[in-house]
Amino acid sequence: MTVAIERRFEAARAVVDDAARLALSMRPPPGGPVGTLKSAQDWLTEADGAVEAFISRRMAALFPDDGFQGEEEGATRSGSLRWVVDPIDGTSNFARGRNRWCVSLGLLEDDHPVAGIVCAPALGETYTGLIGKGAFLNGKPIKASPVNDTRSAMIEMGWSNRVPKPIFMEKIGAILDSGAMPRSGGSGALALTDVACGRLDAYIEIVINLWDVAGALPILAESGAKVSPFLRDGGLTGGATILAVAPGIADALAKAVQIPLI
């Protein structure tokens, strides 16, 4: 890990903290959803654009030669080091004044994830990961779950309107047949960090985007979790499948849901 990347990581942590406070200040009160539907169950709020623009400006000022890609505006700058942001992951929760959402920022070096920060301000939690330096939740080291039997596992599966219902039901059926307990929380980034810290034993999503996972990938790598080859299988340029899973059930679950691991 180079000094330049470590310096960026430390600076980015402060930027994400500020961005998370901005997002929290813009969260609607509890109630019906506040925002605009991009497609079925895919919400856009004023905070999405404001938080992304805030992070983009700050990172450009700090590291003008770095690339930048956001969920809302796409790739606006290029570079061998590239920041990838999801300004509000879990927007459907955010739009209803719920707590399970986060600001996610990842750093890629030549398309390889090297650092990530996932901050859930309404939960008071920040996950961080730097390749070779460990994974942390609020500054304390985390590791993937020690579970080694799917019959005692808790597994989350994300839903997307881009996935045909039969495929979704097939994977849910495989999870149930394995004896695991299914869950769904509405934030892919937080589900992935839950795998990294052992709150979940696996997370599956059939179609998910780079900005949803970029911040979590280094955290997962440093936690000891096993992860499917999301980037290799198209995640750099479009939606792809991800499976993140505790090592003790990795082979059994990958076989059950027919998603190969690296």
Could you explain the architecture of this structure?
This protein is of the alpha+beta class and 262 residues long. It folds into two domains: 139 residues, Fructose-1,6-Bisphosphatase, Chain A, domain 1; 108 residues, D-Maltodextrin-Binding Protein, domain 2. Helix 1 runs antiparallel to helix 2. Strand 7 and strand 8 form a beta hairpin. The model has no long low-confidence stretch (mean pLDDT 94). It is built from nine helices and 15 strands. It is globular and about 50 Å long. The strands form three sheets. The chain has an eight-stranded mixed beta sheet, sandwiched between helices. Keywords: Hydrolase, Magnesium, Metal-binding. InterPro entries: Inositol_monoP_metal-BS (IPR020583), Inositol_monophosphatase-like (IPR000760), Inositol_monophosphatase_CS (IPR020550). This is Inositol monophosphatase. One of its GO terms (biological process) is inositol metabolic process.
Keyphrases for this structure?
single chain; D-Maltodextrin-Binding Protein, domain 2; 262 residues; alpha+beta; 8-stranded mixed sheet; 2 domains; 35% helix; Fructose-1,6-Bisphosphatase, Chain A, domain 1
Major sheet characteristics: 8 strands, mixed
Radius of gyration: 17 Å
Q: With helices defined by DSSP (H or I, 4 residues minimum), what is the helix count?
A: 9
Head-to-tail CA distance between termini: 22 Å
The average pLDDT score comes to 94
CATH superfamily of the largest domain: Fructose-1,6-Bisphosphatase, subunit A, domain 1
Order of helices and strands: HEEHEEEHEEEEEEHEHEHHEHEH
- In terms of DSSP E residues, the strand content is 25-35%
